[in-house]
């Protein structure tokens, strides 16, 4: 059930990139930026609050080059495993874990049960416990590329990138044509600041699976990390041409456009992302930043208000709202927004 990686992928943000949508603490991670501002910097507004720069991670094993592990030894274990998979697909991860535990009880050496339990634990953000499951799977079956891949993605989630690279290298040694392993290795390299090596890894993944949208998106992040914004946009466009319904690719494209000062185009990209995921505060915030860059302050304010409606506890968005109100000469409201930002922990540096 390595498909957990799809969710992880969009949620694991490089300086502040994206790994999985639906899972996620993405917003908190993304907003932990190092450069706080006393006056709005449009580029930072549109980029730093975006799903952080940790490489876009993940892999959907439903479309993976790795075979889905479904050959348990015990018939009873097989029944529990199937029930667990069905519950997993319904998003009932705690119940799925109980089923996987039952499968393990019937067949302690069942690789599928250990890996799928780890995948469910990852969905619940219990990465340490998940890694223990993957450790068990790799201990029992050291020649399983999928088990090493899952372990690598879990280590990426924990920012343990050196260990993740080792896990992905093990997977690649076993199956050099695992696009998932090359993608995961790229994520770990990108988050380690090794953007050139990350691009090489993503290119290997794409050569194996040309329609691997996540790898194209991740390549865009790595190119962006090298300041190659135009090339990054080309990579995002490729990802979008493969899967136009992934809001993260539209958001990433918007970030790159904003960095180039193309705020009109950025607004359109963020708008497409919002159509796909209207309850993502990050997307509304980024759209507000792009409007701010166009001096369209009323529209920026509307977008920041929407972001706050979705996530009222994010200090940085309150600060940006204050800056926008200040630009509109609405001093009293601006002061109130700045005060709220400070109350929530915003500090000038």
From TrEMBL:
SUPFAM superfamilies: Protein prenylyltransferase. TPR repeats lie at residues 77-110, 111-144, 145-178, 179-212, 213-246, 247-280, 281-314. Coiled coil: none annotated. Gene3D superfamilies: Tetratricopeptide repeat domain. InterPro entries: TPR-like_helical_dom_sf, TPR_rpt, Ycf3/AcsC/BcsC/TPR_MFPF. Keywords: Repeat, TPR repeat. Signal peptide: none annotated. It comes from the Archaea. This is TPR-repeat protein. The lineage of its organism: Archaea, Methanobacteriati, Methanobacteriota, Stenosarchaea group, Methanomicrobia.
